[in-house]
Design brief:
5-stranded parallel sheet; two-stranded antiparallel ribbon; 8 helices; 16% strand
């Protein structure tokens, strides 16, 4: 997969792309990431890439000309990447979106800044708009890294143990079950006995039940009857029948 990041701040990506999953994906040749400096496509002496908004108001708006030149440059050869704008106005990013984006051969992420991008860029070149949550960041660079890491770890070969990807939170309807490691007891808090039993069937049942309980408690909005599997519905039903069981959602 090739990913182009279109930004006013290319140095923002220097360190993150040399760390962890993204570094591994790049080193393995699974993902090629190219950072595009929008200012390279300005034509003014001072490389100005923003201006005051028409109609007045606070802040600056990213100018259309350099961004469009950058996107057209990426499309030379006839294959323009699917272009995603990171903006608070976009649809909220989730695991399903990460999985969908991981299927593309080529993507470009346009990082918004200031009061936003001139709407004509959106109308002409942006294929979809994504937000990583209902809060405001200084720019789309952080959001781009979030999205890129989420989709990159879904690509075959990026994460060494594919089971860890398959059992991640949001891979199914439940949050992830609690995890424990050594020591077996710490500060008077022992690891649940079932995890030490060696009985894989019991461990699997315990994990599924705890995952369901955690989801009911923390994220009941994830429990959509239309997407729950029959097994997940049975687990929730068993929890609700227990004394003190709670399936509020």
């Amino acid at each position: 997969m090739r990913i182009d990041i279109i930004t006013l701040f290319p140095d923002f990506f220097v360190s993150p792309l040399k760390t962890g999953v993204l570094k591994r994906a790049i080193d393995a040749g699974i993902v090629y990431i190219h950072v595009v400096d929008i200012r390279r496509f300005t034509v003014t002496k001072h490389r100005i890439a923003d201006d005051y908004p028409f109609g007045g108001g606070a802040g600056m708006v990213m100018k259309p000309e350099p961004i469009m030149r950058a996107i057209r440059h990426l499309g030379k050869g006839g294959l323009r990447p699917r272009t995603v704008l990171l903006t608070p106005q976009g649809r909220t990013f989730d695991q399903k979106t990460a999985l969908r984006l991981s299927k593309y051969y080529r993507l470009a992420f346009l990082c918004g800044r200031y009061e936003g991008v001139d709407e004509r860029v959106v109308a002409r070149y942006v294929d979809e708009e994504i937000s990583i949550g209902d809060y405001i960041l200084s720019g789309g660079e952080t959001a781009a890294l979030v999205v890129i890491e989420a989709l990159a770890r879904l690509l075959p070969g990026v994460v060494g143990n594919t089971e860890s990807v398959d059992t991640d939170t949001f891979s199914g309807s439940f949050l992830k079950y609690p995890q424990y490691t050594r020591p077996q007891e710490y500060l008077g808090m022992p690891v649940p006995e079932v995890l030490l039993s060696g009985n894989h069937k019991s461990i699997d049942e315990w994990r599924k039940r705890r995952a369901a309980e955690r989801t009911i408690e923390r994220r009941p909005d994830l429990l959509d009857d239309d997407t729950l599997t029959d097994e997940e519905k049975k687990i929730i039903a068993r929890i609700s029948r227990r004394p003190g069981g709670d399936t509020k959602r």
